[in-house]
């Protein structure tokens, strides 16, 4: 199998989000998502924050070694519940400060491609620091791709005709979830990749059959929030 270029996977992840939100009017941007309490505009602002963080992080290389990789990075999440609630509330208030929800889309359209260009230009052998950790550049890009792919699915809760996340982005996100599971876990046969991402992140609950097939590994779910 040909190795995935991390910047190409990120580009596909961000392009996928643009494809979902780009054609929505202000009313459409106020539809619900899978993230409790967040509208599409709110969630887009949250992902926009990741793209902005990428620009700062990639422009500020640090010395190694890394203390986490693209999988172990997520073991600190979902983290403190109070912090998560505070962030959710901050995002809602910040999104509401825009004159129109479509203003967030405009800022996303400017920022996401810039983040991808920075990713393409970054030294793949280099290191960066973010969220209190040091990562290799490719691992950092994988964390951004994983989050974007999952949030792409979150955005489409009330958009049944929206395009799914791209295959490279999904492959990176699935590899992350696989890494968070024990090596002997076998994914239930009925799950496709998107089912896996939704159930691995707690967006969709496990069924009794899922639990039977997963066995003891069911106790690992959700793998991240």
TrEMBL record:
Coiled-coil stretches: none
Annotated Pfam families: MDMPI_N
Record-annotated Mycothiol-dependent maleylpyruvate isomerase metal-binding domain positions: 11-155
Any one GO MF annotation of this record: metal ion binding
Gene3D superfamilies in the cross-refs: dinb family like domain (1.20.120.450)
InterPro entries recorded: DinB/YfiT-like (IPR034660), MDMPI_metal-binding (IPR024344)
UniProt protein name: Mycothiol-dependent maleylpyruvate isomerase metal-binding domain-containing protein
Source organism: Micromonospora arida
């Amino acid at each position: 199998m040909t190795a995935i270029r991390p910047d190409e996977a990120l580009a596909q992840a961000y392009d996928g989000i643009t494809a979902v939100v780009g054609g929505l009017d202000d009313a459409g941007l106020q539809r619900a998502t899978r993230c409790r309490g967040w509208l599409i505009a709110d969630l887009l602002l949250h992902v926009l924050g990741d793209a902005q963080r990428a620009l700062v992080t990639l422009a500020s290389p640090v010395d190694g070694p890394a203390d986490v990789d693209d999988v172990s990075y997520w073991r600190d999440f979902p983290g403190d519940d109070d912090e998560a609630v505070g962030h959710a509330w901050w995002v809602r208030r910040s999104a509401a400060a825009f004159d129109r929800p479509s203003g967030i889309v405009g800022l996303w359209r400017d920022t996401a491609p810039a983040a991808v260009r920075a990713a393409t230009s970054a030294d793949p052998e280099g290191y960066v620091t973010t969220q209190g950790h040091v990562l290799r550049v490719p691992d950092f890009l994988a964390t951004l791709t994983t989050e974007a792919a999952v949030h792409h699915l979150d955005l489409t809760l009330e958009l049944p005709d929206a395009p799914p996340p791209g295959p490279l982005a999904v492959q990176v996100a699935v590899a992350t979830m696989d890494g968070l599971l024990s090596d002997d876990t076998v994914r239930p046969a009925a799950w496709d990749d998107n089912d896996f991402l939704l159930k691995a992140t707690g967006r969709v609950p496990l069924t009794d059959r899922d639990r039977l097939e997963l066995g003891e590994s069911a106790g690992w779910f959700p793998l991240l929030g």
